[in-house]
Amino acid sequence: MATADLPTVRLGGRRVPVVFPSWRDARLHTAAVIISVHAIGIMALGFRVSVPHILSAVIAAAFVDVAFSLRLTGRLVWPASGMLTGSGVALILRLVGMEAGNQWTWSGWHIYAAVAGLSVATKFLIRHRGAHLFNPSNVGLVAAFLVLGSSVVEPLDFWWAPPGPWMLAAYLIVLGGGIAITSRLALFEMAAAFWVVVATGLGVLAASGHCMIAAWSPEPVCGSAFWWVLVTSPELLVFMLFMITDPKTIPTGRLARVVFALALGILATLLIAPQTVEFGAKVALLGSLVILSPIRAVFDRRFPTGPRGAVVSSRPRAAFVQGIGVGVGLVVVAVAIVLAGLPARQSAEAVPVAPADVLVEIDPTSLPEVRVSPRVAAVNLDVEASQLAVTLAENLYIEGEALRRADAGMLGPVATGERLAEMQQLVVDAISTGEREVPEYSFDALILDVTATDEVQTSAGLSFAATGTVAVVTHDALGSEISRVTSEFTATFMLRRVGGDRWLIASVVPGEA
């Protein structure tokens, strides 16, 4: 529409043309999908983001977009691009320490506003031949993660929540909206090509024994579980359908776009391969687009649409040579993926088991009913709370037997970290003094929760806040009971799973039930 035909508003003593949005604008449709995911995530999926965070990002991005557009064009343009960037930043960006359910907190809003505003600014400040080089939200997020680090911010988890109606709704919105929008823009084949390559590459990586530590998993995510989580991850789908398909930051030709997506999939897999923690894997995925976007023109020149851009030669001999080259290339890429993933292999060490002569029989009915914190739903837990309580009781019993027998070798299957060192020292003390003080616990109440920790990028841990009574029974070196003192106790038992299926006691904190 010509400037003369646009409505105007008075701004600073002059009339300024105003450009309103079009309902056919794909950016509005994309924003509607992302906002819908935000709503489901906050209400039902435990997203660790607040409404003020989202609004701060959207408003800051919109303001920067309007300001730059006004300065460059002399028009007040509806900030569809800026608002989409802001909502995208808020979808991916998370603050370390932010808990789900705190939907109205303003804490950290300035980080969201700064990242979103700077992301939009790159569209106007980092340009080449009249076009911006990077997808704004993509480059802004990667810069934030690299500059601020994993102790301050982190990307959205690959795993959102256990399967259920709300997760199904999220998948339907992301896939349905994404496929509809990319199909309309003739970009779906590009997105599909990327997914096929990433799924194949990650399959090679998973088959080689790759593992990743994630805060939502109680143990390293390895092998087929690693592959399945990533290829079905809603975050990967959002990246695939809404971020790499930005028409302004990808090649212009249809064939060039598909080849670009294939290269992007290979690069993303290679960058993910050496990462041992989820933070690194997610930043690697996002970073692959930052690396490849500035050279998108190379794909247009090398793979133009039309006969000159044919991938396979029409001459049989040349086509045969091309096929050999592609086969060799695929083998080289597969080997490179395996080699790049060497830092993330998990050694197949045997998990210690309890001594065969220790008979542990815990009657589940002797334990109180476990209360479960809502935060436990955010962990991909494959065991019932009642069974965890039985495991805790078994671990404490075996710890007691280790003290009574003065046998530190019994502690490996039931304790780890700080607790293991503490119990080993108690065994040494028992041997030196000749007296073994063995605690016998009886629980009145147990509350299961997610372990609070100041560490970043560790596997998920659990805790039992417990109250009850403990009898400290003192034995002599021959096993005879010398004394028994019973008292009430309050403590929090921290549990971790470091290998196999068994949960071990990592630490015990008195007086925090």
Could you explain the architecture of this structure?
By secondary structure, the chain is of the alpha+beta class. It has helices at 26-45, 51-73, 80-92, 109-125, 136-148, 165-184, 188-207, 223-231, 234-243, 254-272, 278-292, 296-302, 316-340, 385-405, 417-433, and strands spanning 8-11, 14-19, 76-77, 93-95, 127-128, 131-132, 153-155, 211-212, 221-222, 370-372, 436-450, 462-475, 481-496, 504-510. The chain has a 5-stranded mixed beta sheet, with helices on one face. Strands 1-2-3 form a 3-stranded mixed beta sheet. Strands 4-7 form a two-stranded antiparallel ribbon. Helix 4 crosses helix 5 (136-148) and helix 10 runs antiparallel to helix 11. It is elongated and about 100 Å long. The N and C termini lie far apart (67 Å).
Task: Summarize the structure in short.
The chain contains 15 helices and 14 strands. By secondary structure, the protein is an alpha+beta fold.
How large is the radius of gyration? 29 Å
> What's the β-strand tally?
14
Major sheet: 5 strands, mixed
Per the principal axes of the C-alpha atoms, what is the gross shape? elongated
Tell me roughly what share of residues is in helical segments.
40-55%
Strand content is 15-25%
DSSP summary: helix tally: 15
Q: Structural class, please?
A: alpha+beta
Task: Spell the H/E element sequence.
Answer: EEHHEHEHEEHEHHEEHHHHHHEHHEEEE
Distance between the termini: 67 Å
